[in-house]
Amino acid sequence: MISVRNLVVRLGSFSLKDVTFDIPTGEYAVLMGRTGSGKTTVLEAICGLKPVASGTILLDDVDVTRLKPSLRRIGFVPQEGALFTTMTVREQLGFPLSIRKESSKTIHDRVNELSRLLDIEHLLDRFPTGLSGGERQRVALGRALSAYPSFLCLDEPLSALDEETRQEMYALLKAVQRETGVTTLHITHN
Predict the structure, then answer these.
(1) Contact 137/161 with Cβ under 8 angstroms?
(2) Are 151 and 97 in contact (CB under 8 A)?
(3) pLDDT tens-digit map of 3-42
(4) DSSP 3-state of 15
């Protein structure tokens, strides 16, 4: 479960005040709001990418408000995917585990598991420049899931996709969430 209590984030003249919500373990929640309303700021504060002025962020009853992002066990899919241009899909999927010094076998097994789950096995040796928008988002999702996060943050991951691909990705996101059981917050403006 994630609990956000009285969250205050100040960024120059913009501030979020007293943001409070809970997402039960294993649920898929959507936060909707207009452009510029602070949705991404909430997500980035949860991930540890924006400083919190006050309030509390609890993940599975552990206060992560002041923890470094690397210690929070949160997967994050930014709006444009933010793939590394010099890494193949295989390397992208294994990267979070390699940072944590996991064994080659563990990385290999997880990459294979995720590539099957996301139907990207045929893309493993490609670089991001050789991928469509939907394929890039699948890879970004796989990278975010690679290290078995307790919580998954999706920052408008479908906004740059055409309508047909967006519908396919909605179905995939729901299926992946059901399969993994990871608690998910998806932010969107539509």
Answers:
(1) yes
(2) no
(3) 999 999 999 999 999 999 999 999 999 999 998 899 999 9
(4) strand
First to last CA, the chain: 25
Q: CB-based contacts of 101: which residues, under 8 Å, 6+ apart?
A: none
The domain that holds 174 is classified in CATH as 3.40.50.300
| Host domain of residue 98 | 2-188
How many domains, in total, are found in the chain? Answer: 1
The radius of gyration of the chain from alpha carbons, rounded to an integer in Å, stands at: 16
169 has pLDDT over 80:
yes
Distance CA 92, CA 107 (A): 11
CB 160 within 8 A of CB 79: yes
Q: Which tops the pLDDT comparison, 112 or 188?
A: 112
Q: What's the pTM?
A: 0.90
Hey, is 89 helix, strand or coil?
A: helix
Q: What angle do CA 79, 91, 151 make, to 5 degrees?
A: 45
Measure CA 19 to chain center.
Answer: 20
Q: Which amino acid is at 183?
A: T
9: Cβ contacts below 8 Å, ≥ 6 apart: 15, 16, 19, 38, 41, 42, 45, 50, 51, 52, 53
CA angle 109, 111, 171 (to 5 degrees): 125
Using the predicted structure, report yes or no on whether residue 75 has a pLDDT greater than 80: yes
